[in-house]
């Protein structure tokens, strides 16, 4: 009996001892956080290492099957549908009135400037990480890893939340296709849940899961499907624009309270909200490892998709306001209801079907991009490394695609659009602000070999002036605030342009007229961020605290251990000559 008891307790004791050892190691790891943070801040990745050593943590390479028109279709498909069908109605009704099309112009200008920054980065650093990789490789010995991680986490947040919200809009338009007047018909209400989370949307969940499986199979087939849907979608947009202009009247633009019933403030506030519509063009930059000729295809695809989408957005918003006075525009299934108002009941069903298809295309591209972001963050070991694995036969980041697909489906089941739309905008604007700062720093410090203090001081003064201008606008305090900070912003940019030399890249496309486009992008992103509501910043602050805590408790130690292992798991292909050949081939492409 004593022998049996001894044999039973022995495994328990060994299990307890093992658990105690693991816990002790974790406590020791936490105690090393300050030391490892210093090491992380003094370390830096080069583009060569990012393109070779870090990329090979994924195992297999992603397959280069896409051309420039695939990239442009992905960018257009990712944006079309999200903005017009989801945000136009609420913004026109509550914020901007008939001048909602001007809000799209302002937001489009800011997106175009940001896309130019993305285009230069994507050519010089052709990896799948987008803003995460650009920031990670730019700030050198300063705070580059945390800034890159912070941007990457916010990009993933905006993707998951926006995809969930857009998937729920798919259900609304699909129900209108079949003649349902109430957009909530196909949802299940659950009493007892908090308002905004009490309408379960199973069609949205089914759509997200179906697209997830499609993206796991192949990038090229997914791109071909998106190309077909995008071509059809552009034709469909043309039908709505022509019908709106032919059947609308200019009287609706000035009745009942003029073209801008909420004033210039309403137009700019609307621009910040519709900026949600431009989420998607940065997805094109995440396809850099799957493009056959990245040096030429990436700038064409990224910038071209923003220009095409901006024009279509403005024309669509204008056609809507020509058909229906702004105070009669509905916030749900906006365009379907507008066609009913002009007596085109049959067109309402067609619009519902076309909008549903457009939302599917935008979801497909956004989910394609979000998986690439998570894959590259996993390569850096800032999240568990299994999320970085690329399937050898399909050439897709399978684990990242499945994980984010499940997250998106879970949120789409509960969460309503109004809860997340402004939080999405603030995350997007912040990331684009960081990318513009990084481009100026890279061009003037890393490429032109100027002292970093001058550029950092310029960026600080520029951001401070932009914040001063934005606060003066928001709170309407002193009349002299706007001209003072406006003139100071222009003066700061002009003096920096005159005093500090800038060298353009020798290979590939680079932004002209630096630093003006990137500096204006910084100014506009700051301005649009400050127009958002207080609760957006409160929710964003909670998210920022959470991801910072995760970085301190997990990311610092994981990346430190991965680098200490050196030639262990990171070097899937140990031949440095093969790695350099891959880099050379990529640059030649």
Automatic annotation (TrEMBL):
Keyword Membrane on entry: yes
GO (cellular component) term, any one: plasma membrane
Membrane topology label: Multi-pass membrane protein
Listed Gene3D superfamilies: Amino acid/polyamine transporter I
Keyword Metal-binding: no
Pfam families in alphabetical order: AA_permease_2
InterPro entries reported in the protein's UniProt record: AA/rel_permease1
Family as reported in the entry's similarity comment: Belongs to the amino acid-polyamine-organocation (APC) superfamily. Cationic amino acid transporter (CAT) (TC 2.A.3.3) family.
Name of the molecule in the record: Cationic amino acid transporter C-terminal domain-containing protein
Species: Malus domestica
